[in-house]
Structures are given as structure tokens and as C-alpha cells.
Specification:
The complex is a heterodimer of chains A (395) and B (255). Chain A contains 14 helices and 13 strands. With 395 residues, chain A is α/β, with parallel strands linked by helices. The mean pLDDT of chain A is 95. Chain B has a single domain, classed as Rossmann fold. Helices cover 33% and strands 18% of the residues of chain B. In chain B, strands 1-2-4-3-5-6-7-8 form an eight-stranded mixed sheet, with helices on both faces. Chain B is globular and about 45 Å long. The model of chain B has no long low-confidence stretch (mean pLDDT 97). The chains are: A alpha/beta (395), B alpha/beta (255). The interface between A and B is medium-sized, with 22 and 24 residues.
Chain lengths: 395, 255
């Protein structure tokens, strides 16, 4: 199993007591001197991953204190040069919000060349609250996502360009990217999903399907992907599936839980967003939007569900609640391995674990200890998971 | 409500009364069947209030994405229904559509009333000429929309699926047509001089979405346009003050 360490590069110093952590906190609240220190430590942690045999994942958000990385390509450009072995995953670039997808193809190709073919290219729709900072149209965003996807891949895989691409959304007459990617025809493509209805289209492209923190939903999601693959005549390998969870390992259960608890502030703070940014028109399908209206004041607080059906309030859950919901794997190395193995069997298996090994206020020392212990005591055992007869048992 | 097809695009049309045709183009959040302003107008006129393409239960034609599409659609609408010497009334977003139609010109439109229309920008890049319907706290937005916001909120939770579907589609369509550039056409200002139809610009005195100053400047760019305000009304004077709004409209049509 490939494991990627993920941090949002958070700025938790200003999280306390805010009605909304996104879009509208004035940036006078951000201290660039402290910010420089934070970047330095986050890059140190990723470079450590390269030494520990872990891979690297970055994401991006805009105008928020939850994630101070406004462009996946920037940290990956640095890491392409300062790491040697780690796969570099962008999960991902919100291409439907980018006015210029060809620019995305150029940046990703350059990172792929500098890293000598270590890029995993996640293309994502983006969260609803990403609409306001970019002013991208929310209505029709999904169709625009797939068009941008087609354009990025064509730009990366065309060898006899230039070609033209003129549509309602994009207008190019000479597309011919230099450099072309190191991996041929293009880096592996990953797409995130939160609902099984999104899986078939991702399966049709044979891309990696990834889901974050979603717990048991991953089971239905991966099943929808496998079903579609089977229906269209192919069998997906385990490396088509990725799951992201918070991971906290410690020498004792308490230590592992404490680390996970601090990282889990990522999950608790994620939904803290003012209503006007949480659900722009057209982001959800009409029946989902009607359900939101019917839910009244409780709307927007989508609970996590444990495998036995218990609902967990994302904003208030304890770390043990999150463990029950399979959003967090925490405890001693043995306990963490067992939790991963259980979830692996529950979902039918996944070839990539996206380990959120840092989040919230988890210190540099704790992060280093977390990553080191995981890589020594858990990572070597994860290969066993693939070797057991299970893969399609969830069906 | 009747169903009508204009060149293959189905729309819902509320049509009542008789007399001179009045085409009413609704705001971005639609209208209700029992709208008192329309009820007053239908006493004297043949009032046609269509749901814009994509709004309510009207078809959303593939690829349509600008108010240009809606303006041409309603020019077709006037032709298809063979309306003559019609009075064109547009409120808020509907006022923007009406202005776009009038710039293009139609012999079928005899008079035009713009009620707190959107559609132009006059300030610099950091001036907010048109309030943000979408990125604004709901409570604050209500205060900007209404002179008296009390009792204006519909209790959506109790509405049936079909009604809610119409409301959600309306929200989507309004955002779709008006998202970027936000609720205006950057070139419309420089062509308003082409409007050759006698025009009344009506404005809610307490409009917090687009101010009466914006309204005056809008009217000044339309040759010969009259500008009138409605007291105790915000962005929707036709809803908050239906009687005085209808009186103004009637006086203008008959005058």
C-alpha cells in the first residue's frame, strides 16, 4: 500500500470563536513572519516523509485560515526539487474554478519533469465555499470540470500540437505545452468524490477515485466504481482506490489518541463556514437542495455515520467518535493497523492511504514522532493487506 | 398558468385581463400567482407574465448563459404572440432584460417601465453598485431588499416538492445568468442612448440593492426617460407598494 502524508498547512492560531473560517476573515489576522516559520516546518515534515518511505499529498483552498495553500503547484514545485523518492500528489487542482486549464497542464507537466515522473495529478471540483473567492460560476460547474479535465489531458498527451480548443467555456487556438510530462502520456489522474453517483464517470476514465474522511460512504463509493467497471468490461486494480483519514500513532494508546484528537480539529473546523458561502446555487443537484431546505436550520451539518449506523456530529465529535466513524485511525501501531485493516475489508480495499499526519495544533515534534512511528511500525505491515484474499468481498 | 412554446422552448405564462398588452418581466426570484401588482394591472390590461427560460418550471435551453439570450427570446416572444404596441415592464433582473430588449429595438414595444432594474455598472472596480444577492448574510440581505422586511420571508419548509423545485430552479437560473459579470452587462451603459421608447424609471425610495442615485443615473442615460420614486418601498416597490406602483404605471401608460 502506498501511504501519503497530508497536511493542509493550517493556520489554527486564529480559529477560536469564529462564526466562519472561510472567505471573510481579513488577512490582517495572518502574520507572515509566523507564516514563514510554519511553511518551513511543513516542508521539513514533507522532506522527512521522503526519508521515511512515505509519499506526499498537498491540497489547496482559498481565503481561509484552515489551509494556507492557495495553489497545489507551488509546494509541489519546491518538493519536486527537494525530495528524491516520494510520489507527489496534488489533491487537487480545482480546474473548474481556474479560468485557464492549459496553464494547469503546463504547471503540472513541469513538476512532473523536475520530479522525474513522481507526480500524481488530482483534479477536483472544489468545495462550495471555493466559489466565492474565485467567482467561478457554480451552475454548470460539474460539466465545466469534465471539459477542463478533457482539455488538460489533451494538452498533456498531444505530441503533434498545436491544437485548438474553442467552446463556450474555453477559447484557445494554439495549445502546445512545453515541457510535456515525464510520465507518458500523462501523470496518473485522481478525482475526488463524496457521493456514489459520481463514481461511474470516474470509473469510465479509469482514474483513481479518492474520498476524504467520509467513513462508511467510501464503501458505497468504491462499490459503485467497481460495479461500473465490471459493467463496462474491466476489473479495477486496488491502486484505483484511495482513502484519506486522520492518523495518530503513539507509543501508548493515549498518545496516539491525543495526536489524532489535535489533528481532528481539521474535521471539526472544516464545516465552519457562513451560510451564504456554504451552498451556492447550482452546486447541489435539485433534490439535494430541496432536502437542504427541508432540513431547515440543521442543514449544512452533515453528520458522519459509523458502520453500525450511529450518527456523529462532525463539529463536536470526540476522537473516539471519529475512530468509530472510520474517519480517524488512532492509538498504538497495532491498534492503528487493526483499524485500517477493518476499514480495508469493509470497503473492499484501497491501494492508497492518504494519512493526515498533521492538522490543527499538532506540533512539529509530535508530527515528526507520528510520521516516524507510523513509517516504522505500521507502514511495513500494510502490504499484508493486499496479500490476503479479500478485494471484492465487500460486494 | 398556461404552457407556451417559443421556437421549441417551453415556458410557463401567467396571462390575465384584457386590453392593451402588458409584458411583465419578473425579478430574479420570480413572482407569485396572486401578485397584487399584476392583479391591479389586469383590471385594465392584457397582462402577460412569463417565467423566464430556466426559471420556475420553464425549460432551460442548452447553452443559454447570458441576458442577451433572454432579451432575444422575449423579442421572439413579442413576434410569436403578435403583440402590438405592448407595454414592457421589467423589475430588477427583469428590468435588465427589458433594457437589453429596448437597446436592440422593437416596433412592438410602445412604452417601457423599468422598476429598480439591474444591468449596468457606473462606479469604479471597488464600488459596489449592485448589492451581492449571493455572498451576503440572509438577514442583512432582507434588510437591503425591503423597506419593511417583516413578514416577507416565505416558510419554504412547508412547501410541496413541485413548488420547491421551481424555487430551486429559479435560484439556479438567476445565478447562472447573472454570476459573471455580476448582474450587469459591461457594455450596456454605452448603448442605453439607443432606447427610443418612452420610458418610466420607477425606484423604491429605500432600495438597498441598487440605490435611487444609481436609478437616477440609469434614467439620465435613456433619452427622455422620466424618473419617479415610490415611498416606503425597497428593491421591490411593485410588491411592497402595489397600489402606488400600479397608479404610477397606469398614469404613465395613459399619459
Amino acid at each position: 500500500m502506498q501511504v501519503y502524508h497530508f497536511s493542509e498547512m493550517p493556520y489554527p492560531q486564529v480559529w477560536e470563536g469564529r462564526p466562519s473560517l472561510r472567505v471573510s476573515i481579513p488577512n490582517r489576522e495572518y502574520d507572515p513572519v509566523l507564516g514563514a516559520d510554519l511553511y518551513e516546518r511543513f516542508f521539513d515534515e514533507w522532506v522527512l516523509c521522503d526519508e521515511l518511505g512515505l509519499n506526499i499529498m498537498v491540497n489547496e483552498h482559498h481565503a481561509t485560515a484552515t489551509c494556507v495553500n492557495p495553489a497545489c503547484s507551488l509546494p509541489l514545485a519546491i518538493l519536486a526539487r527537494t525530495t528524491k523518492k516520494a510520489r507527489l500528489l496534488a489533491l487537487g487542482v480545482p480546474i473548474a474554478n481556474r479560468p485557464n486549464p492549459v496553464r494547469v497542464a503546463e504547471e503540472m507537466a513541469m513538476i512532473d519533469v523536475i520530479s522525474r515522473g513522481r507526480l500524481d495529478m488530482g483534479l477536483v471540483r472544489g468545495s462550495p465555499y471555493e466559489i466565492a473567492p474565485t467567482n467561478a460560476r457554480p451552475v454548470g460547474q460539474m460539466e465545466r470540470f469534465w471539459e477542463a479535465h478533457d482539455l488538460v489531458l489533451k494538452a498533456m498527451s498531444t505530441r503533434d500540437g498545436p491544437f485548438s480548443w474553442e467552446s463556450q467555456n474555453y477559447h484557445y487556438r494554439k495549445v502546445n505545452i512545453w515541457p510535456r510530462p515525464y510520465q507518458d502520456p500523462h501523470p496518473p489522474v485522481w478525482v475526488t468524490a463524496t457521493s456514489p453517483s459520481s463514481a461511474p464517470r470516474i470509473a469510465d476514465q479509469r482514474h483513481v477515485i479518492a474520498t476524504l474522511i467520509s467513513g462508511v460512504i467510501a464503501k458505497d463509493l468504491f462499490k459503485a466504481y467497481r460495479d461500473r467497471a465490471r459493467a463496462t468490461g474491466w476489473t479495477p486494480t486496488i491502486d484505483r482506490f484511495a482513502y484519506c483519514a486522520v492518523v495518530g500513532v503513539g507509543d501508548t494508546e493515549e498518545e496516539g489518541l491525543r495526536r489524532a484528537d489535535q489533528i481532528a480539529d481539521y474535521i471539526r473546523t472544516s464545516p465552519i463556514v457562513a451560510k451564504e458561502f456554504a451552498s451556492p446555487p447550482g452546486y447541489k443537484k435539485i433534490p439535494a437542495e430541496i432536502a437542504t431546505i427541508r432540513a431547515g436550520p440543521n442543514a449544512g451539518n452533515r453528520p458522519l455515520k459509523t458502520p453500525d449506523g450511529r450518527l456523529i456530529d462532525q463539529k463536536k465529535a470526540t476522537v473516539r467518535d471519529f475512530v468509530d466513524a472510520c474517519s480517524v485511525f488512532a492509538g498504538t501501531p497495532d491498534q492503528v493497523y487493526d483499524q485500517i485493516a477493518r476499514f480495508y475489508d469493509l470497503t473492499g480495499g484501497f491501494g492508497h492511504l492518504l494519512m493526515m499526519g498533521q492538522g490543527g495544533n499538532l506540533s512539529h515534534a509530535d508530527t515528526v514522532a507520528n510520521l516516524t512511528l507510523f513509517s516504522k511500525e505500521v507502514l511495513p505491515r500494510l502490504q499484508e493487506l493486499h496479500d490476503r484474499p479479500m478485494a471484492m468481498s465487500a460486494d | 398558468m398556461q404552457r407556451l412554446s417559443i421556437r421549441g422552448n417551453g415556458i410557463d405564462l401567467w396571462r390575465e385581463g384584457s386590453g392593451r398588452p402588458v409584458l411583465y418581466l419578473h425579478p430574479g426570484d420570480g413572482f407569485v400567482d396572486e401578485d397584487p401588482f399584476l392583479a391591479l394591472l389586469k383590471q385594465k390590461y392584457d397582462v402577460l407574465a412569463p417565467w423566464h427560460p430556466g426559471f420556475g418550471h420553464s425549460d432551460f435551453p442548452k447553452g443559454w448563459d447570458s441576458v442577451d439570450d433572454l432579451a432575444y427570446f422575449y423579442l421572439d416572444f413579442l413576434d410569436e404572440l403578435d403583440l402590438k404596441d405592448a407595454v414592457l415592464i421589467g423589475a430588477s433582473f427583469g428590468g435588465w432584460i427589458a433594457a437589453e430588449m429596448a437597446v436592440r429595438g422593437s416596433r412592438r414595444i410602445g412604452r417601457m417601465v423599468l422598476i429598480d432594474p439591474l444591468g449596468i455598472r457606473l462606479g469604479g472596480p471597488t464600488d459596489r453598485d449592485i448589492a451581492d444577492f449571493h455572498n451576503t448574510d440572509a438577514g442583512l440581505l432582507e434588510k437591503m431588499k425591503w423597506a419593511n422586511p417583516e413578514g416577507r420571508q416565505r416558510d419554504l419548509m412547508k412547501l410541496d416538492d413541485r413548488t420547491l423545485t421551481g424555487i430551486v430552479r429559479t435560484r439556479e437560473a438567476f445565478a447562472h445568468y447573472g454570476w459573471r459579470p455580476y448582474m450587469h452587462n459591461p457594455v450596456l451603459t454605452r448603448w442605453l442612448h439607443r432606447i427610443a421608447i418612452p420610458t418610466l424609471v420607477l425606484w423604491g425610495e429605500r432600495d438597498g440593492i441598487v440605490s435611487p442615485e444609481y436609478g437616477r443615473a440609469y434614467a439620465e442615460r435613456i433619452p427622455g426617460a422620466r424618473f419617479k420614486t415610490i415611498a416606503n418601498a425597497g428593491h421591490y416597490p411593485q410588491i411592497e407598494q402595489p397600489q402606488s406602483s400600479a397608479d404610477q404605471v397606469r398614469a404613465f401608460i395613459e399619459g
